[in-house]
Amino acid sequence: MIALPGGRFLMGTDYAHGFPEDGEGPVRPVVLSPFSIDIAPVTNAEFARFVQASGYVTEAERFGWSFVFWGDIPKDRYRDLVSDTVAQVPWWCQVYGAKWNSPEGPGSKIDERLDRPVVHVSWNDAAAYALWSGKQLPTEAEWEYAARGGLEQKLFPWGDELTPQGKHLCNIWQGKFPQENTCEDGYAGTCPVEAFPPNGYGLYSMTGNVWEWTADWFGRQHRKTETTNPRGPMVGSGKVMKGGSFLCHASYCNRYRVAARSENTPDSSSSNIGFRCVCQAQ
Predict the structure, then answer these.
(1) What value does the CA radius of gyration of the chain take, rounded to a whole number of Å?
(2) pLDDT tens digits for range 266-279
(3) Which domains does the chain have, with CATH numbers?
(4) For residue range 82-140, what is the model confidence (pLDDT) as tens digits?
(5) 54: which DSSP letter?
(6) What are the backbone angles phi and psi of residue 157, rounded to the nearest 5°?
(7) How confident is the model at residue 254 (pLDDT cuts 50, 70, 90)?
(8) How far apart are CA 150 and CA 162, in angstroms?
(9) CA–CA separation, 220 vs 237, rounded Å?
(10) Alpha-carbon distance 71 to 193, whole Å?
(11) Which contacts of 182-191 are long-range, i.e. CB under 8 A and separated by 24 or more positions?
């Protein structure tokens, strides 16, 4: 983990090409107490140690299935593995047997992906891991403060340009979504958590790779006045996710900006959602 001093920062964005309906703005001053945060998303190797030590069974395992992106499913096994697709977004496929250690369903393994973020973990699964490890899930404010890496109101952890001097600094989609991924950044799916340079705080994978769960319930209304250690609404239907994933593209998602946000129900899992943890300063 890396210890961060906290303090005052400007959260949110009024970016003209953002998504106001997501509650990205307004820009508002936030004060945070000191905390420590995982240097990278929890990896398959780390989650495997948790499962081995605790005997924990994920919700995807209990439900019997999880969502897998269609491009990750071997074409010769598509008919055998895919039970159904989501009507409005048919690239999300219901795959029975898809779980954290079989990411594409039966026959797939994580043996060569131990340094990649664990996926097919619900918010409830992430919270269970955090509790076992003596940590917590970050609030949205803590996550965004950490992702900014000490920069103020920049779009990305490194600045305002997505690919400065043509260099890819995160794992997102290139090409035409969802049919063609040119993989110019070197990866078609998840990548090792330290594959790209860290931000100014030394944190890896704060943009792209996998969405990351936060502790907060999702809400769209935010106070413009300064708040200290803010949290989301007391109740809700979805938990805030931050950071975007390897499937994000400007033509469709464009939520790999540090102020961007999305939500999902606490029992949901898929092949592009992971998490990292925090600890409060003693």
Answers:
(1) 18
(2) 999 999 999 999 99
(3) 2-56+115-280 (3.90.1580.10)
(4) 888 887 899 999 999 999 999 999 999 999 999 999 999 999 999 999 999 999 999 99
(5) H
(6) -60, -15
(7) confident
(8) 17
(9) 13
(10) 21
(11) 187/246, 188/71, 188/72, 188/246, 189/69, 189/72, 189/246, 189/271, 190/113, 190/116, 190/117, 190/119, 190/246, 190/271, 190/272, 191/116, 191/246
| 177: its two tokens | 């979504």
Q: What is the pTM of this model?
A: 0.96
Using CA atoms, how far apart are residues 154 and 106, in angstroms rounded to an integer?
42
The H or E element containing residue 142 is helix 140-148
Dig out the tokens for 7 from the structure.
């303090």
Token pair belonging to 224: 């413009």
Q: Which residue pairs from 98-101 have beta carbons closer than 8 angstroms and sit at least 24 positions apart in sequence?
A: 98/60, 98/65, 98/66, 98/67, 98/68, 98/271, 99/58, 99/60, 99/61, 99/66, 100/44, 100/47, 100/51, 100/58, 100/60, 100/61, 101/44, 101/48
The candidate with the shortest Cα–Cα distance to 124, out of 137, 112, 134, 115, is 137
CA torsion angle 152 155 161 167 (round to 10): 100
